[in-house]
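Example record used in the benchmark description.
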Amino acid sequence: MEGVQAVPDIKRNIKVSAVIDDYKELKRIVGLVPKGITCEFTRAYGRFLSLLYIEVDVDVLSALTQFWNSNIRCFEFSQFDAVPTLEEYTTMMDCPIMDKVGVYLYKEQHVEISKVIGPLNIPEDCLKKCLAKDDNNQVRGLKRNMLEKHLDMLVKMRNWAAFKKTLLLIIFGVVLFPRGKTEIDRAAMDAYFQFVENKACPIPAVLAETLRTVDVCRNKKKQGNLQCCLQLLYVWIITHCYVRRHMDVSAPIALVDFHKIPVKKMTVLEWKEEFAKLESEKFFWVCPWYKPKDIIIGCGSFHHVPLMGTRGCISYTPIVALRQLRQVQVKPLKEQLGGYNFAYTVGNALETNLVKRSWKHVHRKKIEGTGTPRPTVTPEYTEWREARDVQIYVPKERMPTTKDLADMTIRIEELTALVHQLQLENEAKDFKISNLEYESHKKDQKIQNQTEKINELEEDYRKCYKMSKRPRSDGGTSSATKFQEEIRDLNMLIKKNSDEKSRLESVCRSLRDENRRLETSSQEMKKELESKINQMEITVGLTRMAEIRRDTDLRAKQQQIDALEKEIQVYEENFEKLQNCH
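Model output (structure tokens):
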């Protein structure tokens, strides 16, 4: 296959950890600052403050790391490839790469501490307390807690110039280039100084450290530790997966409007399964806040983009992420893939200088059209990707523990009791319905009897009416009036019984509906119970099979031990015979 080979042995279950910081004290201090000052900070530097309020789910990034392909430098999902791009990161941070000032470049040694702390207005008596030193008494960084105390003092003094620079330094050290929770190291200070003094964009360095730490974690044998700007990587993947219909504003701001995207709480295993099922059609290729004018596709003589981080260099390949940049995805050339990936050492000085010189000649491609993006791929790209034989992640089945079996047994007992209770309620409802039907039948009989009596009274009334027309000699009143009153009373009684019958029928209907609902619930409970029982039987069967295998292995090993002991005994006897002969 032309180009790049697929990773031969993809490890899909590397345990990845990360240091999560809630920045509680830092956010408290920022909360004391007038809004006008924080707005000035954002206008001057970018949306660095917004990173403090992004809550990262490490399980998402731990699962995502399993899909990294070191050869192609991208996340390799079952149907497509994706990678964070410079343009997406700079848009999120509102920190563009400008040609005249360039980007952060490692200059073989870090900036002097005095140049960093000079503009911070740290009192001389506190300066020594701020320095963090190694075992050789060399300054390796600044203590975070002391800088935060100084930041709090600057707020009280309303020294906003020093406040903004101190705040930015802390963010560089604990958010953009973290190396633990307690210190801002020399590498982070170096990137900070170039940004403040020369406006050198730190975003390529942020992306470089992100890709390098993901690559390191991906190739660890057991466990890796993500040491990078977790917030940007988290916002990037969640936005691409779930932003659809959740950022409906006309001009969304990536970090400010991110909270509108709902994110489910899942385990690492569940997130692995979620990423494994990602479909190209459902992946939101172009983020709603991404409005590019051009994209960086290369530097100097490189066909890819070599990124200089604070501790090492890695080549990133935007050619595999063209759909994210509103472009048609084409097949990458062989020379556009791979590239550098090294830490800064004396042995890599030549490569380091080549990368630095390449950033003097950045190759950009202008984006044509600003309408609705239609991410597509060429047939050549599809053929190239299919030929890579991408390995699809399949989660390993976990053997049930004793606690799992106990929990399942308790659940089965609860379901059995609930089914029994529903059966009792069903029987009680049936009995009540039978009684009501009997009462309704009695009412029907009574109504029928009263109707027959009315008919007889009406017949007598007609006879009496005829007789009332004849002259009476006794001067008595007609009996027709009495018949009319009796008929009226009977009609009222019939209406009353009819109403009662209607009420009973309504109650019967309600009870029948309730009975049907109980029957449905009972059937569902029975099905769930049967499913749990079957699952438990399978689980118990698997456990027993595993125990049988273990017992068989133990017996085989014991037989081997017995055979070896016999051989040892024979050797010892022969050795004794030889000794006796001598």
